[in-house]
Every structure is written in structure tokens, then in C-alpha cells.
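Hi all, a correction to my earlier message: I attached the wrong file for ribose-phosphate diphosphokinase. Here's the right sequence:
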Amino acid sequence: MKRLLFTIQSYTYLVPAFLAAGDFEPGDVEHKVFPDGERYLRVATDCWGRDVTLLGGTPNDLDWLELYDLGYAISRAGARSLSIIIPYFGYATMERAVKPGEVVTAKTRAHLVSAIPSCEGGNRVFLFDLHTDGIAYYFDDSHVTRHVYGAPLICEAVKALMGDRPYVLAATDAGRAKWVQSLARDLGVEPAFVYKERREGGLGVTGVNADVAGREVVIYDDMIRTGGSLVQAARAYRAAGATKVHAVTSHLVLPGESLEKIRASGEITTLIGTDSHPGSQKLASTPGALCSVAPLLARALEPA
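and the right structure:
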């Protein structure tokens, strides 16, 4: 029997890709919003004894609540097992407290999902390219977690972009250097990163650690939000002699007018990434800009 596939509203754009990538049967959810703002949800497909997959990243608080509400309802409806796929984990950068009293929101949200009752066959949580590996351990032991790394997707995207042209794989700063070094080894290219120091008004670039003169540079970062760090790094690589700067990311968040600002900077020749976040759909009409996480995450559900 096929797995039942449910999704939260903000991730319906990924459903066709998941149906094409795996042996799923789409499940129905009824949604209503009352005049006072309260929401009505009903799992309209019978889950009794079924293996169920719930798809939903968590870019905002409403998404977190919808994921929890649906997961709870599916479990209480008698699903045999529940696999929760979170392509983008919101609040991933709030994974530790710096000042006394700060809320470690990545941990509190993991506890929220962990409160979904366990099904007879167990609950599993699949996470994609987390900002920090340790977030996977914030979930309760009743929920088995698996961190699915996006390196294969990123490498394929970079190879498709660059073809046979020589290039350097770069980071926005030394903090992401380890990730870039690992990807650079997989791709067989040289890594690079920029040095930064704290100055009045914020961080400033002080130099580049590799020779990029006369070469194309591909910057990798795990997520692109406002694009400020990306544009600053691209400017540094261009100043060091790079002929072109491209950017690839696991999560295209792109809030507000950030995409327009990145393009207006003139520093980034090409911007590509995965479809893990709804913000990625701003690039859906750009040929070759997106690679889907669906095949990778659908395979992760299957036994080894």
C-alpha cells in the first residue's frame, strides 16, 4: 500500500515533485479560517493503519503550529507510523543562548514537534541541511531524527552550472569554510574564503585566502536571506580579481525585496539553490535555478 502524503499549506508547491519521486497517495486536509482568525483543520483522508508522511518546512510560526496540529491529528487518527519531513527548519540560527534569558527557539520548536503522540510504528523526523548539526538532537528520543545532507544536490547543481570551466568554490566567511572545503573536495576544486573583522558599524572584509584572479568563483552558503553577507563576499572576490561570481545555496529564503537587492548589486552573475523553502519559488521561472529536494528526501524514507 502506498504511503499517505499530507502537507501544510505553504508547502503544497512541493507535492507534485514528491508524488513523482516516491510511491505516495495524496491525502486531503480541509482548511478554513474563521472571521476571528482562528483556523479549522480536518484530516479528511482515513489514516487508520496507514504509513503516513507529513511534509512541511517551518519558515514561520503558523507553519510550526500547522505541522504540529496535523501531526497530532494524524497520530490520534490511528496512523501506523508517521514520518515528518522538514525541508527547512525555521529558527535554525537560534540554536544556542548568547545572553542570559535568551530563548533557544530551535530547541523549543523541536520540543513542540516531539510532543506529537507516537504512532504504533513510531515517529520519524527528516531534516535537510541544518544550519547546525546538533539541532537534530533537540528532539525527544521518542522521535527518531535523520539529518539528510544536501551535498549531492549542491554538487550536481554546481557541475551543471559550471560545466568544464575552471572555478573556485568559496565561502562567505571563515565560519563556513569547513562546509566549503568538504564540498570542494567532492567537486575536485580549490576552496576559498574571506577574512572578516568586527569594525564600527559591523563586520568588514580584510582579505581573501586564495588566488582567484582571472577565475570564476562559486560561493556556497547554507541559506541566503537578505543577501548582505553574500554581496559583501562577492565584492571581495571581485576586488581580488575574480572574473565572475555565482552563488549556490541549500535554502533560498529571500524575504521581502532581498532578491531584487541581490540582483541590483550587480555582484552575482547567477543565483541557484534547492526548493526547500517557499522563497525559492521566486526563482521558479528562471531556467536551471532550482533543483528539487523531493527525490533525495523521498529516498531517505526507504529502508537502506
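Sorry for the mix-up. The chain has a mean pLDDT of 94.
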